[in-house]
Amino acid sequence: MSDDLRRRLAEIGLEQLTEIFAANDIDLDILPDLSDEDLKELGLSLGHRRAIVARDCRAIEGTIAADR
């Protein structure tokens, strides 16, 4: 697992998910492509799934704003 993903998880208070993602070969390139169903299958709670989705939305918004 990359240090970037570990850091991103820590930023949103989900560092406890590090091992789940590492065991499933998930990195920052794959994470944005995971569906809610994928995250659920990994055993993530609804709250953790929503936190990850919210982080992805904020990242997308930041990219759009920077392009303007």
CATH topology, by name, is DNA polymerase, domain 1
CATH superfamily: Transcription Factor, Ets-1
Round the mean pLDDT to the nearest integer and report it: 83
* Residue runs with pLDDT of under 50 for 5 or more positions: none
Structural topology:
Elements: H1 3-11, H2 18-23, H3 36-41, H4 46-67
Structural key phrases:
68 residues; mainly alpha; DNA polymerase, domain 1; 4 helices
Give your account of this protein's structure.
The protein has 68 residues and is mostly helical. It has one domain (3-67): Transcription Factor, Ets-1 (DNA polymerase, domain 1, Orthogonal Bundle), CATH 1.10.150. Helix content is 63%, strand content 0%. It is built from four helices and no strands. The protein has helices at 3-11, 18-23, 36-41, 46-67. The longest helix is centred in the C-terminal third of the chain and has 22 residues, at 46-67. The chain is globular, with a radius of gyration of 12 Å. The protein starts with a helix and ends with a helix.
Q: Brief overview, please?
A:
The chain has helices spanning 3-11, 18-23, 36-41, 46-67. With 68 residues, the protein is mainly alpha-helical. The model has no long low-confidence stretch (mean pLDDT 83).
